[in-house]
Structure formats: structure tokens, C-alpha cells
Amino acid sequence: MKRTLLTLTMSVIFVSNLIALPLSEARREAWFLTDKMAYELNLSNQQYAHVYQVNLEYFLHVNSPGDSRGRYWDYRNEDLYYILQDWQYTLYKVATYFYTPIRWIRSTCHHAIYDHYRKNHHYFAKPTCYNTYRGGEWHHRKTNAPSPYKHKNFRTGVGMRDTYHKGNVIEHKSPTNPRPKTSKPDGRKENKSNVAKNPNKRPSTIRPASTPKQPRQTTSHSRSTKTNTPTKERESRTFGR
Asked: How far apart are CA 93 and CA 90, in angstroms?
């Protein structure tokens, strides 16, 4: 009996890991990942939309640990190879949280991007195809078929990071319970030990201690002889003139 219950429990866990992300959640994960790729790789607006579509396809098709680095992972790398420029693709492969965004730890799906960026932090707005593109293009894709982006040109366009302003950072915070400032200004995570307790507090100025007054010397009634010593004139200094 115990063996049967254990088998059923393991089957439920295995089946739960085979369920793909729903479309709404896959869209949020694809936007979050693409947003960070646009910031670090300086994607153009055209690249931004197509990289989002590729990431969405990937999240919709990863159902098991084998899919995270299987056929769909190869599809993603091949598509991004033609979408990104050479230097962008090199940086993409170096950043492991971009190159392998999904990892399986103890039968649990783990998104590596959250190890480097805090959740609900976005640099840019949603892609223009966010609400219209629903994925599903990889269902009909054959293993040896060439990438649909092979003959497209993505070599022109101004990078999104070049026109980025820090005031445009999109934050999704609860107004009643704001998150503490435990991250860097660019959204990356930072150790709490390195964060100043009062970063906006100005250091207090230390005033020099006043010198005690010297007692006035009493002069004798006898006339003292004055010596003709030359007086030293005070030097006047001018700064910045």
C-alpha cells in the first residue's frame, strides 16, 4: 500500500512538471527576460520584438527538464544567432542567465534571471506584439528545418540602451507595502551588507571647538620702549581667478 501511494505521489509530481506555462505567465516571463537582454545587449526595437517572440516560444514549449536544453533550446539559439549581431550573440552566450534561462533544481523549474535582477523591474515597455503574438510557431517546425530568421536583416537600428533614461524604469510595486531598496539603481540585486543604512542622509558638519579666551594682560604704568619691527602684511589669496 505504501509503495502504491509513493508511486502515485511521484507520478503526480512528474506530471505537474510536464505542464507548460499558461500563455499569460509565459508572456510575463518572456517580457522580463527580453527586457534584460535589451538592456545588456543594447537591442534595437526590431530585435526587441523578435527576441520576445523567440523567448515566448521557448517558455511555451519547455515541459520537462529535457526540454530546457533539448530541441527547443536549439531552436532558440539558432533563431537568436540570426537576430543578434555577432558581438551581441557572444555576450549572450557568456551570460548564462540568458543562455540557459530555465534550470531544473530538485524537479523544480528555476528561472536563472531572478538570481541577478529583482522581480517586477523593467527598463522598457512591453513589445508591440505582446498582446497579439500567441506563439505556436514551433509546433510545425521540423528538426532540420532552417531558422525562419535566416534571411532577415537585423543589422540596423539604434540600440534601446542608447536612448534609455533612468527615469523611465517601470516598477510594479504595491502602494501599501513598498519594497525596500535592496538593489542597485539598474535593477540588479545587491547584498544587504553593502547597502548604506541612510544613503540620502548628509554627513553632519563638525564645527571646530572655540578657542578659550585668553586673559587680558595688564600693562604696567611704566612706559615701555617700542621697537621698530616691521609688521608682516596679510597675504591675500584669490581662488579661481
From this structure: 5
Query: 224 lies in a domain?
Result: no
For residue 164, is it within any domain? yes
Q: Which residue range is the domain that position 121 belongs to?
A: 23-170
CA distance 51 to 55: 6
Q: Is residue 56 in a domain?
A: yes
Per-residue pLDDT of the chain (241 residues; tens, 9 = 90+): 445 454 444 443 433 444 568 999 999 999 999 999 999 999 999 999 999 999 999 999 888 887 878 889 999 999 999 999 999 999 999 999 999 999 888 778 889 999 999 998 999 999 999 999 998 887 788 888 899 999 888 866 789 999 887 666 665 554 444 444 444 545 666 554 444 445 455 544 445 555 555 555 555 444 444 445 444 444 444 434 3
Q: Number of structural domains, the chain?
A: 1
Q: Centre a 10 Å sphere on the Cβ of residue 189 and count the other Cβ atoms it contains.
A: 14
What distances in angstroms separate CA 5 from CA 2, 10, 12, 15, 108, one per listed residue? Answer: 5, 9, 11, 15, 21
Q: Are 30 and 111 in contact (CB under 8 A)?
A: no
